[in-house]
Amino acid sequence: MDATIRVELGENSYDIAIAKGKLAQIGQHLSRLKLGQKILIISNPEIFGHYGDTVIGSLHTAGFEVCTHLIPAGEQYKNLASIQKIYDTALDHRIERSSTMLALGGGVIGDMTGFAAASWLRGINFVQVPTSLLAMVDASVGGKTGVNHPQGKNLIGAFYQPKFVMIDPTVLATLPVREFRAGMAEVIKYGVIWDHNLFEQLEAADHLDSYDTMNGDLLDLILERSCQAKADVVSQDERESGIRAILNYGHTLGHAVESLTNYKQFVHGEGVAIGMVLAGAIAESMSLWTSAEGDRQAELIQKVGLPTECPPELQTRDILRTLQSDKKVRAGKVRFILPTKIGEVMITDQVSAELITDVLAAAAA
Amino acid sequence: MDATIRVELGENSYDIAIAKGKLAQIGQHLSRLKLGQKILIISNPEIFGHYGDTVIGSLHTAGFEVCTHLIPAGEQYKNLASIQKIYDTALDHRIERSSTMLALGGGVIGDMTGFAAASWLRGINFVQVPTSLLAMVDASVGGKTGVNHPQGKNLIGAFYQPKFVMIDPTVLATLPVREFRAGMAEVIKYGVIWDHNLFEQLEAADHLDSYDTMNGDLLDLILERSCQAKADVVSQDERESGIRAILNYGHTLGHAVESLTNYKQFVHGEGVAIGMVLAGAIAESMSLWTSAEGDRQAELIQKVGLPTECPPELQTRDILRTLQSDKKVRAGKVRFILPTKIGEVMITDQVSAELITDVLAAAAA
């Protein structure tokens, strides 16, 4: 069943449409918005090969003028040099303030397109058509855009909201299974931090580890509840001055694990999965939640086919050092998001280096 | 007399303090705001040589931790490569989300610092200490930040408001006289588009062409009325979807003249001066205002020592082509801001290429 989720952000509010098999109606959706004539589609060659014709055909039918900019797939292209190439294309095609940049792709394409749209002519229209599960449930909601600095992920960017997000779950048929599972890490995250009911439905379900085996209605529910959870949080705190930080659950340690393995061993969702298990262990050692709750979380993560263990070759001192350079550091203190029960978390900067060391040692044992 | 101007922009509102001889109190001002511990000063070597010690001393006294990043002076450094170097410094000094970037300099430093602050960690605190007249009356108000693309000025950037602006007019003592006059172009602009009273006071005054000769009270009045005019306009339309466009009076043709002379023959204010005269001539040929009003404008521009004539070697077809690539183009139509009387302008895209050609030919005759 189709659903529309409204992300309430004052004058930056926008709709997310979840519409199964309706990618070919993107043009109709966009013609209802006040957008200019020109749309620059930004995508990568593989995804564009799958869905480019459908999107362009629909946009042409709706009367838009369309041009395209492709970026090779991969996190290694998520940098300022790629953004500069988008600017060059925007100039060549005379993209104006009333024009639109449309991201057709996963999180990397969405983050880069958003930052390019935020910074071209000081901000033009931005539309998201996410094609990965991770992008659907996370990157497409809430306006975080940006690129990596050679020394760290997402250090450069902007908060910039799209005008519209179109999610067609059937495009997940072409998503590699490893990427599908990575997206499920964020879904589980919403269960732990916000929606215990979602968590329980996932616990009760089978075949969570691939698009091909997952029940279609369950997938719809996952998309809707995840987007709703993120929209709820982001609406309260667009620029992450408070509660929005809970969305970083699992990400602080996850980023450290990804970074220390040079972003080669784990994709983002896998880092988050390991980070959630470690955050759960920290919470347990601080008596914030029980080992039973930690076990439930770990079991669900395993059921979707995600890793739960930190690579033993990582040194604790390297992890601690990497945490210190995280964006979320305030006055030198690392802030952690720790679960207090399934569906609820707290924010704290009272986690000592000693406690982290002990938890990592226990996890490695 | 000191004055404070409030720029009303909802949760992005901020104060501009005009405080003669009080640069050394910048630390006290900032300690009243909710800023983090660290401040990264961004400046150029010459300005930093004049005022760096004063600012750093004041910030240290107020308890801030200070680091510095210098950029060579000149528009040719206003590019993404310079922004990347700011990011590198920000990383080296562990600039956090609660930290502040402080622009100590003219418009180039302010625009770049603002864009770096807007895009580092998706946005950190930004404070402006403008040291040129142009930056005081224009660049420091309203949140336009950015850098140039090799093909055009200010094509890359963001709307990003400072937390505070501190204007100490006495720093203008070290400003080259040509730059002082360039700033006066924007002051005259406010007279023409918004504040006929300011225009008339300038007409009645003498010694407008340098800081050394200008009456101190008149300078205070100029700063206050100009900042107030811009604050009035920007408060109504932060992101330039409507009335804010009137601030581009003189800029559309001015940018074309600057661009076609490769930004070597004219500084920005000189381009604006020429652009205002041409816009006045267009208005006159469309019977929007009188030749008497056009003459008053030209005389005032001459009185501050600014050029009024387009270089005769520029080809009309090149000017028309350059206008087409301007940021302000909408659906291929160039929007002009045209005066209807001293103190009032209108926005129109109904200026034909033929009319522009005729006006340029008459101006060259």
Structure description:
- The structure is a homodimer of 365-residue chains.
- The first copy, chain A, has 365 residues and is of the alpha/beta class.
- Chain A folds into 2 domains: 169 residues, Rossmann fold (3-Layer(aba) Sandwich); 188 residues, Up-down Bundle (Dehydroquinate synthase-like, alpha domain).
- Helix content of chain A is 45%, strand content 17%.
- In chain A, the strands form 3 sheets. The first copy, chain A, has a 7-stranded mixed beta sheet. The first copy, chain A, has a two-stranded antiparallel sheet with strand order 7-8.
- In chain A, helix 9 packs across helix 10.
- At the A-B interface, helix 3, helix 4, strand 7 and strand 8 of A face helix 3, helix 4, strand 7 and strand 8 of B.
